[in-house]
């Protein structure tokens, strides 16, 4: 059993959860949910990279990987010919995050992430008020942190700062990504004095993300997962019910090949949450009255 699987089993036992089957590192999130999105990795076991930007994920299918590589190469080429325009720099950061996310070797992930970090910092040296550059800098720092061990903790404060700046500049970027990201960061990170983990701050940012973009599935999913982890069962169920109500509407709004990866992830996480409320899940009779969408 590797470190991530061991960490996941420990978390499950602590939560008195009945399912203790081994999961891959990419399935470890709070330790409670069998998530197929690369939101939490095993180095260290709690650290995440993409949990506050799941809408960007392209999935790990061959087509998703090809789209990620093509976008990264195109953004890199555009930035090479125009280093003055701020858009070209942060687009490298966004594409680097996506391309790094589907890498299997730490060396490859780190190299791509560092290129994204450099591009975003290049933008910020001239335009510190660029919300996308701050935001995607945080995401790329998260990718780099995945390749570290103890060194990952040193990057957390940088991620927190970049997300905070992005939040102050454009709270709506990536469907309330800064609030969603800070909520997850404060939820997943160890608490003081080790790191920045803070339940109160986490809840505050998750609540704001839901208010700012209530129809974006990952806002409610991430909040519901955290609520369950905090043993707020009724709060988690409330978010699940709201999620079912918006599911079809969100499917219509967020469609196309680039959304296949996120929807696959969201469906797995949604069903994992409803396992805690079997009488009300998406396959139950009551789901029809809520307007919930089945598989």
Structure notes:
By secondary structure, the protein is an all-alpha fold. The chain has one domain: Serine Threonine Protein Phosphatase 5, Tetratricopeptide repeat, CATH 1.25.40. Helices cover 64% and strands 0% of the residues. The protein contains twelve helices and no strands. It has helices spanning 3-14, 62-81, 86-101, 106-126, 131-146, 152-169, 173-188, 199-212, 217-229, 233-253, 260-274, 285-290. The longest helix has 21 residues, at 106-126. It is globular. Mean pLDDT is 79; it is low at 1-46 and 48-56.
Q: C-alpha Rg, in Å?
A: 18 Å
Report, as a whole number of angstroms, the end-to-end distance: 32 Å
The CATH superfamily is TRAP transporter T-component
Q: How many structural domains are formed by the residues?
A: 1
CATH class: Mainly Alpha
Mean pLDDT: 79
Question: CATH topology, which one?
Answer: Serine Threonine Protein Phosphatase 5, Tetratricopeptide repeat
Number of contiguous helices: 12
Q: Tell me the β content.
A: under 5%
- What's the CATH architecture name? Alpha Horseshoe
- The quaternary organization reads as single chain
Unreliable segments (pLDDT under 50, ≥5 consecutive)?
1-46, 48-56
């Amino acid at each position: 059993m590797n470190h991530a699987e061991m960490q996941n089993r420990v978390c499950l036992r602590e939560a008195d959860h009945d399912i203790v089957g081994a999961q891959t590192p990419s399935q470890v999130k709070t330790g409670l949910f069998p998530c197929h999105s690369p939101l939490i990795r095993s180095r260290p076991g709690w650290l995440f990279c993409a949990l506050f930007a799941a809408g960007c994920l392209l999935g790990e299918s061959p087509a998703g990987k090809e789209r990620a590589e093509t976008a990264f190469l195109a953004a890199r080429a555009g930035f090479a010919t125009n280093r003055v325009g701020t858009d070209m720099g942060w687009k490298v950061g966004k594409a680097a995050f996506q391309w790094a996310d589907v890498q299997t070797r730490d060396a490859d992930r780190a190299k791509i992430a560092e290129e994204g970090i450099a591009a975003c910092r290049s933008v910020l040296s001239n335009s510190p008020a660029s919300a996308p550059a701050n935001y995607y800098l945080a995401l790329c720092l998260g990718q780099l942190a995945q390749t570290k061990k103890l060194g990952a903790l040193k990057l957390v404060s940088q991620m927190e700062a970049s997300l905070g700046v992005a939040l102050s500049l454009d709270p709506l970027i990536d469907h309330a990504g800064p609030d969603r990201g800070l909520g997850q960061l404060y939820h997943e990170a160890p608490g003081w004095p080790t790191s920045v983990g803070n339940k109160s701050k986490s809840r505050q940012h998750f609540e704001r993300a839901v208010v700012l973009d209530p129809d974006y599935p990952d806002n409610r999913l991430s909040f519901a997962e955290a609520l369950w982890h905090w043993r707020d069962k009724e709060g988690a169920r409330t978010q699940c019910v709201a999620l079912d109500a918006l599911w079809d509407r969100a499917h219509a709004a967020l469609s196309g090949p680039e959304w296949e990866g996120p929807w696959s992830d969201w469906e797995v996480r949604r069903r994992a949450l409803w396992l805690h409320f079997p009488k009300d899940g998406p396959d139950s009779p009551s789901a029809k009255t809520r307007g919930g969408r089945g598989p």
